Amino acid sequence: MRTCVLILLLLTLPLHALMSSGSPARADWMNLSGAETAPNIVEIVIEDNQVRVDLEIYIGDLETFGDLIPDDLLQETAADRPTLDERLRRFASQTLQFITETGETLPAELRLVEPRLRKERFSPFAGMINPQTRQPVPKPPEDKRVLYAQVVYPFSEQPKTLTVVPPVDENGLSMVNIGFIAYHKSVPIIDFRYLSKSATLALDWTDPWYSRFDNPTLKRHHSSALMSFLYVEFDEVRHEVLARIKDLGNWMNLGLRSDEFIEPDEWDGLKDRVGKFLLEKNPVVIDGRAVHPVLARVDFITLGLGGIQLIEEPQRLDISTAILGVILSYAIDGLPKNATVEWELFTGQIRRVPVTVIDPAGPFLSFADRTDRLTEWQNHLKSYSEPTIEAIPLGSGQRLRVPLPALIFLLVAIAAFGLAVKPRLFSRKTWAIAASVGFLGAVLLSSVGVLEVENPLAQPPDQKESIKIVARLAANLHNALREREESGLRDALAPSVSKENLDAILPELRRALAIEIQGGGTARVDRIDDIVVKNVESLGTGGAFRTLAEWSAEASAGHWGHLHQRRIRFNALMELMPVENSWKLIGLTVIDVRQES
């Protein structure tokens, strides 16, 4: 029978198999296990009155799930083949079982079965070497053909627990390789994991967020309903909070029309209320001083092992899974000596809250609970260097060093020498002595009282010097753009941008050079490299020049425990001139900005 089925599937796979399956419209949660690449996939959704299962059965494992294969997909049907009802009873009791806490095995009903192509699921680690096992992470099967089936398991009373049993051998281990994901209503209970043996799920019908498998390896990565992140950076401390809307309802009036959903037109009002509420909670103390924060940003987000993604467009959200990311900012000078955050929000379900402290050296994970609410950071950084913004000095050819006292003596010597040739008032000898004294004084005072003046004959810097100038200027501009306040930004740009041209250049800097990241804010530039300078042209006297410059900036920033890293390539037309003994930008047009791999 198996050979006949295989042949028929090879020949009759329908074109609509290229379309998505009938499973729920939601993004798959990425994970480190690689189970989303397993040959067989089972998606389980526990609803109010049934368990809905979507299966993708690998073409090489059809025999294990043979009871689901309909007669019309077989070239030959055995005369003694059981009826569909009989096969479904056997499937529910032997192949894929759901057993309640009372020992009841739920019956199965087949809703749909058809050949399809395997659903594409993003697997970021497929093919890479697992650092723990030193083995390659499995890739999906090259043969994408599957038998898709949707099976439901109805129940009349909501069970307290469900035990999921795959097709197992005499040792209780799954006979085939199965990757699975499970949802209680719309709440993901786990990320993709392997269903290698039976697993029991405790169901919380009042709040599915707290439904749990008994196996500790079967869980989602972001399992906490509340998470706290304390960022300590140069000139800023941030307290960032991830909070589930349903849990916030324990402490504040959400002001929503429904207990189940958040409607698109309720987004702005809810974000405003939550932001104001958290402004007054979980106090942060910096260097012994309580500081009131500024509400920097509030966003709806989704969580997954691949990171945190903002939900850009308002849409209806399930209140059980909707999460807000709130960023509270505390402005400081430099790096503090210490900082603390006191977590205040607990419930009967939320007894412990993970708190991650992140400074330039890296993250440190701890927990806050009712008996120990305080998380403290101490500055133990020894090799950290603060970002600096310094004036870009002129090269030796851009300024003239004039020793004023020596110049005066030289002029006296020249005049005395002329009078010695044609003496007047005094004798030739007297004027000769005066000339000698003047020349000697000019030599002796050549390094005293030196005055620097602009060299009207200066030429633009050469290629090597131009690259150094662009490198320092680019670093200055990127570091300055991290300033949030207008006055602070202008002060930070003063060493690099001509005061007369600042108002014209500032919009271009904000538009094109500020490296913004998901979650708000401007990234910190860690390195400027790969600098190319082309077409250095003179702008007139004093060495002022125009050049087409390119550089790459490696930038990073963290939000909600996730590090964002980007490498950006800039291409800009720059105009610089000597101002007050340093190079300053007098014109800027950014031609191209692109992200590099």
Give the % helix. Answer: 10-25%
Counting structural domains, the number is: 4
**Approximate shape:** elongated
Q: Number of helical segments?
A: 9
Main sheet overview: 7 strands, mixed
Distance between the termini: 50 Å
Low-confidence stretches: 1-11, 14-31
Structure write-up:
This protein is of the alpha+beta class and 597 residues long. The chain folds into 4 domains: 2-213, no CATH class; 226-378, no CATH class; 399-454; 458-596, Roll (Nuclear Transport Factor 2, Chain: A). It is 19% helix and 36% strand. The chain has 9 helices and 31 strands. The strands form 7 sheets. Strands 1, 2, 4, 5, 7, 8 and 9 form a 7-stranded mixed β-sheet that branches. Strand 15 (284-286) and strand 16 (289-290) form a beta hairpin. Helix 5 packs antiparallel against helix 6 and helix 7 (463-480) runs antiparallel to helix 8 (486-493). The chain is elongated. The relative contact order is 0.08. Mean pLDDT is 85; it is low at 1-11 and 14-31.
What's the SSE blueprint?
Elements: H1 2-12, E1 40-46, E2 50-58, H2 84-95, E3 97-100, E4 109-117, E5 145-154, E6 161-165, E7 178-184, E8 187-188, E9 193-194, E10 199-202, E11 212-213, E12 226-233, E13 236-244, H3 245-248, E14 261-262, H4 267-279, E15 284-286, E16 289-290, E17 294-304, E18 307-310, E19 317-318, E20 323-331, E21 338-342, E22 352-359, E23 362-369, E24 374-378, E25 392-393, E26 399-403, H5 404-421, H6 428-444, E27 450-454, H7 463-480, H8 486-493, H9 502-513, E28 524-538, E29 545-559, E30 562-579, E31 582-596
Parallel strand pairs: 1-7, 12-22
Antiparallel strand pairs: 1-2, 2-5, 3-6, 4-5, 6-10, 7-8, 7-9, 10-11, 12-13, 13-20, 14-19, 15-16, 15-21, 17-18, 17-20, 21-24, 22-23, 25-31, 26-27, 28-29, 29-30, 30-31
Helix pairs in contact: 5-6, 7-8
